[in-house]
Design brief:
Blueprint (H helix, E strand, L loop, with lengths): L2 E7 L3 E6 L4 E6 L2 E4 L4 E4 L3 H18 L6 E6 L2 E5 L1 E3 L2 E8 L2 H7 L6 E11 L8 E2 L1 H6 L5 H23 L3 E8 L1 E4 L8 E2 L8 E5 L9 H4 L5 H12 L4
Antiparallel strand pairs: 1-2, 2-3, 3-7, 4-5, 6-7, 8-13, 9-10, 9-12, 10-11, 12-15, 13-14
The structure holds thymidine-5'-phosphate and aspartic acid (ASP).
Length: 240
Protein backbone atom coordinates (compact mmCIF):
# COMPACT_ATOMS: atom_id res chain seq x y z
CA UNK A 1 0.00 0.00 0.00
CA UNK A 2 1.47 3.31 -1.16
CA UNK A 3 0.50 6.61 0.46
CA UNK A 4 -0.22 9.27 -2.17
CA UNK A 5 -1.43 12.88 -2.21
CA UNK A 6 -3.23 14.74 0.57
CA UNK A 7 -6.98 14.82 -0.10
CA UNK A 8 -8.43 16.58 2.92
CA UNK A 9 -7.04 18.55 5.86
CA UNK A 10 -9.56 18.44 8.72
CA UNK A 11 -9.31 20.03 12.15
CA UNK A 12 -7.55 17.06 13.77
CA UNK A 13 -6.92 14.58 10.93
CA UNK A 14 -5.47 14.65 7.44
CA UNK A 15 -6.66 12.17 4.82
CA UNK A 16 -4.36 10.84 2.08
CA UNK A 17 -5.07 8.85 -1.06
CA UNK A 18 -3.40 5.47 -1.59
CA UNK A 19 -2.64 3.39 -4.68
CA UNK A 20 -6.04 1.72 -4.08
CA UNK A 21 -8.91 4.10 -4.95
CA UNK A 22 -11.08 2.43 -2.29
CA UNK A 23 -8.58 2.87 0.56
CA UNK A 24 -7.40 6.03 2.36
CA UNK A 25 -4.83 6.84 5.03
CA UNK A 26 -6.25 8.65 8.05
CA UNK A 27 -3.46 10.61 9.75
CA UNK A 28 -4.15 11.78 13.32
CA UNK A 29 -2.36 15.10 13.93
CA UNK A 30 -1.58 16.64 17.33
CA UNK A 31 -4.04 19.48 16.63
CA UNK A 32 -7.07 20.00 18.83
CA UNK A 33 -9.95 22.35 18.15
CA UNK A 34 -13.17 23.35 19.82
CA UNK A 35 -16.17 25.61 19.27
CA UNK A 36 -16.23 24.89 15.52
CA UNK A 37 -12.56 25.54 15.02
CA UNK A 38 -12.38 28.82 16.97
CA UNK A 39 -10.16 27.52 19.80
CA UNK A 40 -7.05 25.75 18.50
CA UNK A 41 -3.95 24.17 20.02
CA UNK A 42 -1.36 21.44 19.51
CA UNK A 43 -1.04 18.76 22.18
CA UNK A 44 1.95 16.38 22.26
CA UNK A 45 1.03 12.71 21.73
CA UNK A 46 -2.58 13.52 20.82
CA UNK A 47 -2.37 12.05 17.32
CA UNK A 48 -0.95 8.71 18.32
CA UNK A 49 -3.15 8.46 21.42
CA UNK A 50 -6.33 9.00 19.40
CA UNK A 51 -5.16 6.69 16.60
CA UNK A 52 -4.74 3.90 19.14
CA UNK A 53 -7.96 4.53 21.06
CA UNK A 54 -9.90 4.71 17.78
CA UNK A 55 -8.39 1.44 16.50
CA UNK A 56 -9.29 -0.35 19.72
CA UNK A 57 -12.87 0.94 19.83
CA UNK A 58 -13.50 0.34 16.10
CA UNK A 59 -12.26 -3.25 16.60
CA UNK A 60 -14.73 -3.78 19.44
CA UNK A 61 -17.57 -2.29 17.37
CA UNK A 62 -16.76 -4.44 14.34
CA UNK A 63 -16.62 -7.56 16.56
CA UNK A 64 -20.11 -6.66 17.82
CA UNK A 65 -21.44 -6.42 14.25
CA UNK A 66 -21.25 -2.66 13.62
CA UNK A 67 -19.88 -2.15 10.07
CA UNK A 68 -16.98 0.35 10.13
CA UNK A 69 -14.58 1.91 7.64
CA UNK A 70 -11.58 0.92 9.78
CA UNK A 71 -9.16 -1.52 8.11
CA UNK A 72 -5.95 -1.55 10.16
CA UNK A 73 -3.38 0.54 11.99
CA UNK A 74 -0.43 1.49 9.77
CA UNK A 75 1.86 3.23 12.27
CA UNK A 76 1.78 5.35 15.45
CA UNK A 77 -0.47 8.02 14.01
CA UNK A 78 -2.00 6.55 10.86
CA UNK A 79 -4.67 3.99 10.06
CA UNK A 80 -5.92 2.56 6.77
CA UNK A 81 -9.65 3.04 6.19
CA UNK A 82 -12.16 2.40 3.44
CA UNK A 83 -12.75 5.44 1.23
CA UNK A 84 -16.23 6.71 2.04
CA UNK A 85 -18.83 9.08 0.67
CA UNK A 86 -19.93 10.64 3.94
CA UNK A 87 -23.48 11.67 4.85
CA UNK A 88 -23.25 15.31 6.06
CA UNK A 89 -24.95 14.80 9.44
CA UNK A 90 -23.63 14.02 12.91
CA UNK A 91 -25.41 11.42 15.05
CA UNK A 92 -25.34 12.01 18.80
CA UNK A 93 -26.56 9.74 21.58
CA UNK A 94 -26.80 11.06 25.13
CA UNK A 95 -27.06 8.93 28.26
CA UNK A 96 -26.55 11.87 30.63
CA UNK A 97 -27.54 15.47 29.95
CA UNK A 98 -24.49 17.69 29.23
CA UNK A 99 -23.10 20.21 26.78
CA UNK A 100 -25.43 21.74 24.21
CA UNK A 101 -28.47 19.79 25.44
CA UNK A 102 -28.08 21.14 28.96
CA UNK A 103 -27.75 24.68 27.57
CA UNK A 104 -30.61 24.33 25.05
CA UNK A 105 -33.22 23.16 27.57
CA UNK A 106 -31.86 24.80 30.74
CA UNK A 107 -31.19 21.45 32.43
CA UNK A 108 -28.28 20.96 34.81
CA UNK A 109 -25.34 18.94 33.45
CA UNK A 110 -25.21 15.48 34.96
CA UNK A 111 -28.89 14.54 34.94
CA UNK A 112 -29.07 10.88 33.95
CA UNK A 113 -31.65 10.34 31.20
CA UNK A 114 -34.36 7.68 31.66
CA UNK A 115 -33.38 6.32 28.23
CA UNK A 116 -30.75 7.31 25.66
CA UNK A 117 -31.70 10.37 23.59
CA UNK A 118 -30.71 10.47 19.91
CA UNK A 119 -30.08 13.76 18.07
CA UNK A 120 -29.06 14.70 14.53
CA UNK A 121 -26.93 17.76 13.73
CA UNK A 122 -26.08 19.16 10.31
CA UNK A 123 -22.30 18.96 9.84
CA UNK A 124 -21.42 22.61 9.20
CA UNK A 125 -18.90 24.63 11.21
CA UNK A 126 -20.07 27.81 9.45
CA UNK A 127 -23.61 27.22 10.80
CA UNK A 128 -22.35 25.83 14.16
CA UNK A 129 -23.75 22.33 13.51
CA UNK A 130 -27.46 23.12 13.93
CA UNK A 131 -29.79 20.50 15.41
CA UNK A 132 -32.02 18.93 12.76
CA UNK A 133 -34.60 16.16 12.46
CA UNK A 134 -35.53 13.37 10.05
CA UNK A 135 -37.71 15.71 7.98
CA UNK A 136 -34.91 18.24 7.45
CA UNK A 137 -32.52 15.49 6.42
CA UNK A 138 -34.93 13.74 4.06
CA UNK A 139 -36.70 16.74 2.52
CA UNK A 140 -33.48 18.73 2.05
CA UNK A 141 -31.85 15.65 0.50
CA UNK A 142 -28.97 15.05 2.92
CA UNK A 143 -29.97 11.37 3.32
CA UNK A 144 -32.88 9.02 2.59
CA UNK A 145 -35.31 7.75 5.22
CA UNK A 146 -33.67 4.31 4.97
CA UNK A 147 -30.25 5.86 5.69
CA UNK A 148 -31.72 7.89 8.57
CA UNK A 149 -33.18 4.70 10.09
CA UNK A 150 -29.88 2.82 9.67
CA UNK A 151 -27.82 5.65 11.22
CA UNK A 152 -30.16 5.89 14.21
CA UNK A 153 -30.21 2.10 14.77
CA UNK A 154 -26.41 1.79 14.46
CA UNK A 155 -25.80 4.75 16.78
CA UNK A 156 -27.99 3.09 19.44
CA UNK A 157 -26.22 -0.23 18.83
CA UNK A 158 -22.87 1.48 19.44
CA UNK A 159 -24.29 2.66 22.77
CA UNK A 160 -25.18 -0.93 23.72
CA UNK A 161 -21.57 -1.98 23.01
CA UNK A 162 -19.66 0.98 24.41
CA UNK A 163 -21.66 1.84 27.54
CA UNK A 164 -20.73 -1.48 29.21
CA UNK A 165 -17.18 -1.35 27.80
CA UNK A 166 -16.55 2.03 29.48
CA UNK A 167 -18.55 1.09 32.59
CA UNK A 168 -16.21 -1.88 33.12
CA UNK A 169 -13.37 0.67 33.18
CA UNK A 170 -15.18 2.81 35.76
CA UNK A 171 -16.14 5.42 33.15
CA UNK A 172 -19.58 6.82 32.32
CA UNK A 173 -20.16 7.25 28.58
CA UNK A 174 -22.13 10.50 28.84
CA UNK A 175 -22.60 11.22 25.13
CA UNK A 176 -20.83 10.78 21.78
CA UNK A 177 -20.97 11.78 18.14
CA UNK A 178 -20.75 9.41 15.15
CA UNK A 179 -20.61 9.98 11.39
CA UNK A 180 -21.68 7.54 8.71
CA UNK A 181 -21.34 7.07 4.98
CA UNK A 182 -21.08 4.55 2.17
CA UNK A 183 -17.81 2.89 1.15
CA UNK A 184 -16.94 3.90 -2.42
CA UNK A 185 -16.54 0.20 -3.20
CA UNK A 186 -20.21 -0.41 -2.21
CA UNK A 187 -22.01 2.93 -2.72
CA UNK A 188 -25.53 1.48 -2.67
CA UNK A 189 -25.01 -0.94 0.22
CA UNK A 190 -25.73 -0.43 3.92
CA UNK A 191 -24.42 2.62 5.79
CA UNK A 192 -21.06 2.17 7.49
CA UNK A 193 -19.54 3.96 10.50
CA UNK A 194 -16.78 6.37 9.44
CA UNK A 195 -14.69 9.14 11.03
CA UNK A 196 -13.46 8.21 14.53
CA UNK A 197 -14.37 7.30 18.06
CA UNK A 198 -11.95 9.09 20.41
CA UNK A 199 -12.20 11.34 23.49
CA UNK A 200 -12.43 14.26 21.00
CA UNK A 201 -15.98 13.27 20.08
CA UNK A 202 -17.52 11.99 23.29
CA UNK A 203 -17.88 12.79 26.97
CA UNK A 204 -16.33 10.39 29.47
CA UNK A 205 -16.75 10.97 33.21
CA UNK A 206 -15.20 8.95 36.01
CA UNK A 207 -18.10 6.89 37.37
CA UNK A 208 -17.12 7.52 40.99
CA UNK A 209 -15.81 11.10 41.01
CA UNK A 210 -17.28 12.68 37.85
CA UNK A 211 -13.79 13.75 36.72
CA UNK A 212 -13.77 14.56 32.99
CA UNK A 213 -11.53 12.51 30.65
CA UNK A 214 -12.61 13.95 27.28
CA UNK A 215 -12.25 17.08 25.13
CA UNK A 216 -14.14 19.17 27.69
CA UNK A 217 -10.73 19.28 29.45
CA UNK A 218 -9.57 21.38 26.48
CA UNK A 219 -12.83 23.29 25.91
CA UNK A 220 -13.04 24.27 29.60
CA UNK A 221 -9.28 24.68 30.30
CA UNK A 222 -9.18 21.88 32.88
CA UNK A 223 -5.57 20.95 32.03
CA UNK A 224 -3.62 17.73 31.30
CA UNK A 225 -5.84 16.86 28.33
CA UNK A 226 -3.69 14.11 26.85
CA UNK A 227 -2.77 12.65 30.25
CA UNK A 228 -6.48 12.02 30.68
CA UNK A 229 -6.93 10.64 27.13
CA UNK A 230 -4.10 8.19 27.87
CA UNK A 231 -5.74 7.16 31.13
CA UNK A 232 -8.87 6.33 29.12
CA UNK A 233 -6.78 4.08 26.87
CA UNK A 234 -5.18 2.38 29.85
CA UNK A 235 -8.48 1.87 31.65
CA UNK A 236 -10.31 0.32 28.68
CA UNK A 237 -7.26 -1.79 27.74
CA UNK A 238 -6.32 -0.08 24.48
CA UNK A 239 -2.58 -0.66 23.91
CA UNK A 240 -0.58 2.58 23.80
P1 LIG B 1 -22.80 18.80 22.25
O1 LIG B 1 -23.16 18.69 23.71
O2 LIG B 1 -21.84 19.92 21.96
O3 LIG B 1 -24.02 18.83 21.37
O4 LIG B 1 -22.01 17.47 21.87
C1 LIG B 1 -22.52 16.19 22.19
C2 LIG B 1 -21.42 15.19 22.02
O5 LIG B 1 -21.09 15.04 20.65
C3 LIG B 1 -20.12 15.58 22.73
O6 LIG B 1 -19.51 14.40 23.22
C4 LIG B 1 -19.26 16.18 21.63
C5 LIG B 1 -19.77 15.48 20.38
N1 LIG B 1 -19.77 16.36 19.22
C6 LIG B 1 -18.62 16.49 18.47
O7 LIG B 1 -17.60 15.86 18.77
N2 LIG B 1 -18.62 17.30 17.39
C7 LIG B 1 -19.71 18.00 17.01
O8 LIG B 1 -19.64 18.73 16.03
C8 LIG B 1 -20.91 17.86 17.80
C9 LIG B 1 -22.17 18.61 17.43
C10 LIG B 1 -20.90 17.04 18.88
N1 LIG C 1 -15.09 19.39 17.05
C1 LIG C 1 -15.65 20.70 16.87
C2 LIG C 1 -14.57 21.75 16.74
O1 LIG C 1 -13.43 21.46 16.74
C3 LIG C 1 -16.63 21.06 17.94
C4 LIG C 1 -16.18 20.82 19.34
O2 LIG C 1 -15.74 19.71 19.62
O3 LIG C 1 -16.28 21.70 20.20
O4 LIG C 1 -14.76 22.90 16.60
Amino acid sequence: MDKRQELYHGKAKTVYATDDPHRLVMHYRDDVSAFDGVKLAKLDLKGETNNKINAYVMGKLAAAGVPTHFVRVLNERESLVKAMKMIPVECVVRNVCAGSMAKRYGIEEGRRLAEPIFEFFLKSDALHDPLCNDDHIRVLGWASQAEIDEMRALTHKVNAVLTPLFAAAGIDLVDYKLEFGHPTEDPTGPVVLGDEFTPDGCRLWDAATGEKFDKDRFRRDLGDVIGHYRQVAQRIGAPL
